[in-house]
Amino acid sequence: MRNIPSVAERKEVLKKLLRNVIIHEEEILDALHKDFKKPRFEGVISETAYIISDLKNTIKSLDSWAKPKRVLPSLLNFPSSDYIYSEPYGKVLIIGPWNYPFQLAFSPLIAAIAAGNSVTLKPSELTPYTSALISKIVRETFDVKQALCVTGDHTIAQDLLQKRWDYIFFTGSVPVGKIVAKAAAENLTPVTLELGGKNPCIIDETANLPLAAKRIVWGKFFNGGQTCIAPDYLLVHYRVKKKLIKHLIEEIENALGENPKESEDLARIVNLKNWRRQISLIENQNIIYGGEHDEETLYLAPTLVDEPFLESTLMQEEIFGPILPIRSYEHRDEIAKTVNKYEKPLSLYIFSENKTFIKEVLEKYSFGGGCVNDTLIHFANKRLPFGGVGHSGIGAYHGKLGFDTFSHKKAVVKRPNRIDIPLRYAPYKGKLKMIKRILNWI
Ligand code: NAD
């Protein structure tokens, strides 16, 4: 017999987690700042307040999520009452990335605990201050049988992947996602893979350019550009490109001033390796704005690159930093040529007032999620699934879907013994016509 925590016990421990997150909120924001100078405002909205709201919603909704759901019975089974039971998978491994280190460790953990699982959490080694605090909060909140945090580098994750789990939830890069999927396949362990990709942002000639620029600049440079759903590159109609660039520059300066290095509102690149990679991406490119950098403080200014070649590394790999390539198009088939060159992206954004064009883009391209006339904000609605498709990920979570992700859905048909219609039993002779008629009804 498995020892599954009751819904009341799960709610109790989630309430304890909520208290501890609130108690440690200032320390968390300090740790994020020490790790990569994450601005306090961004830390609150994308990490601590996000998790507090996630916890409150989960605690409030858990009774109804966890209840067996009655569904309409099938005529073939008449009479019966049919249910979907949500049962925990069991032992869950969660491996987190560094870019939203607090949120992307705790959000899946909350869903897994709510669904009644036990969790082993491995946060990223690249944000050591935040990971140490995550570990402390887990220790203060959970019994080791409920949840455990293991800190360390990728070798720790590799060791963990050798063990047998009932579910693995991974957030990180595509290459490591493949390693996780291979390890999971050994034991046929179900996985959720939250990965990345090159997210297009399309701006046509009807777009509201000043507002588009404001929303693109916010979405691109939030977290220093280190966001899995950030617009990776722009595809702008050639007739409005010049104007859009003018507005982009205005908006960067409105947000971060003429010297963003002095702004408190721009996060830094997380480490030297990633910083060097960013700098190499802009070498030999046509930089039309920004480009200033400083190795000591791991700073790279918000940078606009004009018409990079599709063959350049900048246009081959996910950027994951404050560099925004701008490519123009004249005909719509050029958009298709570029977008279809890549694997299916995690996000896609379109800025336009043309309803037909918007419909065409939404239907034509496959992507994890996205926005019309905005960036990033689809992430914030807990009623929307969050996840990728193809190489940008497998599965999704957020809100109730997070609870469902970590629950096996068990089908149960309950039959009374007072009636037993003999139609399905042999001898079958003379029964086929009636069975076919019933099958036609249902
Ligand atoms: P990463 O894949 O390098 O690391 C993620 C985690 O995997 C870390 O905990 C790390 O220790 C572990 N890891 C690294 N190498 C490993 C290996 N060989 N075997 C097992 N585990 C290993 O990713 P990252 O640099 O932390 O994050 C950036 C990437 O994550 C980007 O590609 C971004 O798009 C993606 N991302 C996706 C989402 C999403 O929700 N879809 C969110 C954030 C980041």
UniProtKB/TrEMBL annotation:
The active site is at residue 194. It holds the Pfam family Aldedh. Gene3D superfamilies: Aldehyde Dehydrogenase, Chain A, domain 1, Aldehyde Dehydrogenase, Chain A, domain 2. It comes from the Bacteria. The keyword 4Fe-4S does not apply. Belongs to the aldehyde dehydrogenase family. This is Aldehyde dehydrogenase. The lineage of its organism: Bacteria, Pseudomonadati, Bacteroidota, Flavobacteriia, Flavobacteriales.
